[in-house]
Amino acid sequence: MLLFKLALQLVSLWLLYPAEIQGAGVTMHLTVLARVVPEDWQAYFPWLKAGSFFPDSLYSCKPSKKLSQFAEATHWPPFLIDSINYWHEKYGQNSVTRSSQGSLRLQAFLLGTFTHQVVDSSWHSLVRGYRSHGLLRVLSETEFGGEIDDAHQFIDVMGEFIGLSNVLRDGQNSQWMYYTNANWSLPEREDIMELLYRNGLTDHDITFAELDICVKRGLSGSISEIYTFSKRRNQVLSVAYGISPRARDFMQECWLGGEFDLIAVLAKCLPVVEKMFEQSIGSKNMLKQLKVCGNLPPISSLGAIPDGLVRINRSSNPVFLTPVASLSAFGSSITTGRFKDDGQTYVAVGAPMEDSTGSIYLLPLHKIKSKDSHSNVMEPFTLMRGQRMNKFTYNGVDYLVVSEPGSNTFYFYHNDFLLLEIRDGSTADALQLQVSSIQDVDGDGIPDILLSGESYGINETGSVTIIFGANIAEYLENYHETARIDLSSLSTIRWQGGPLSLPYQHFGASVTSSHNYTEKGFLYVTCQNVGAVFVYSLCGLQNNILPKYVVMEKNIMLPDEETLSKLEKVTSKTHGMYGKTLYTFTYENENYVAISQHLFNQVFLYKESDGFLVYYLSLNLVADIEPIPFTVGFGAAIEYDPQKKLLYVSSPGSYSGKGAIWKISMVEMRETVSLWKSDKILVNTLKHLHMVNPLNEDKGVINFGKSLAVHQGNLLVGAPQYKYGNLNGAQLTGAVLL
User: Repeats (FG-GAP): which ranges (predicted)?
Assistant: First the structure.
């Protein structure tokens, strides 16, 4: 039934513009290609583009079994390796032939083909050993009832338009031309036909002229998609988000096969393929190098290195920071602390895409805020490997805790020195484990590490692990040697899947606990695809205990047998990403928890009251008149300012993707509940708008407000997709505003 409904919606689009939906997947391949092509190959985009579509060009252009089999073969490493061997035979003998136009055009074509191979293997969940994971598999299980064909159809058609909407925010973006330029070219006739001959094809199967037409169908498909998108943007996106409201976030952020993963993998792997043209190393060695490079999450060694260059514009208000490095996503996460013994406060900023493995920048706050005669200066800052970070405070010292989800490893730093490394090496199913929060859950005054892994387990049931801070404190006092330990050697509490253990439920999507510890406090765990937050009593935490409450929006239920039996997986059209963000804070000595539902533009607040959890009120954004409300994202990030007693909430998609920050005072919330006897605040522009993204960046959706942090009255805002709309030069640098 689901497939039938999806087909009807796609057919309705076809009836509106029958010649326009073809070559599905073309623009995504072109977008990824633009992100990763080295500068010295920019002049060869006609051949790069043709190569990036080539593996799909013969599936249906001239139907035959032999051509379909060849098309399938072009998706895998042996075809690439055989083609590189041919290049060495013809062009690799001397510098003159190497630098000839025929040589360079064939190289560019094969580099484009390689990008297609990597995108498809991850995008369509074809990575050996990881086939129960990956974008297509997980999307099918969470949004399409396990129907992989429905998910495949959605990604290949609707995914194109969602991807374009991220790059092309409006009709003024000059990047339209990248997708529509009629500059696609095949390599020399002799070269491309030789590749076909070596794979058992003849001129009778397909001629050069026919092949040229088949490949350029990709160009026609790209132009058709752009035309459809420009004329029917809102209609097409309404259909796409009506089917899967979470599609954009998931297609970008999925750890295996998401757009950012693909870009990071290709940024690392494309140079490996380039080097294969420098010297002939044999087919076995090439295959080995491709496997090592691969498209699995990278496992990197961590170490502090100097000079992460950041541009600071202090003349602007707010102060604006962006790194020199492209493909960085600088600003994905932010925290502050005294991470060195110099008495200075530092802003730690995550750049998870940088150098394929991710970087953490340490920026002295006084340098950011200092008045400088130069409006835009370059500053070098400490740079460390890793993807996200938290602060661990012990005996008055702040330690920077860096997560590397690809290797399930966590690193503790102070003074740029690596003090402690903890790795979960217990099982091959340990996937994407990271620090979700650091808070005291046992009342000993030492913060504890709350690890989450929503993709943990072969079927991504999810996992939550608590490492008690007292067990690791001793390692942090040794400044002379790095301690490396396995998670299994520590005393922990671990919940695999929680009380349900449904496949792809994503238990542990977010984890936090009461802001100020009390024996009557709580631990909060999101089970994302059930649309519930499980609430555990801090008193008596142990393995395999049941939660005290199951919370679903305004409903706070006891976890009796009847309640648990009714819980099941639902799609994002139902759960709206309830619990994606959990945020706890204290106001007038009382603990509160804010739980976002950003697809429905709501934030729910609950109050901890003498061992009970009670619903307090909801914040509902009504200020935006957006054609597609699912894309507004009110509640994407939440931060409380204890000095101003304000709750900041971001909505990265407000104002047609420009982004905004909203502020709601605790006084207003208290009066709404106690004086006006209401349980809802309608957040509006006149009363609650704090700021609209001030950056003059009209290209692409920059995710303004993806992350927030407050330090002594200063609000820091992350925009990790700054420069996303650029398809040349500085791309996806990211930015932070103070």
Answer: 317-372
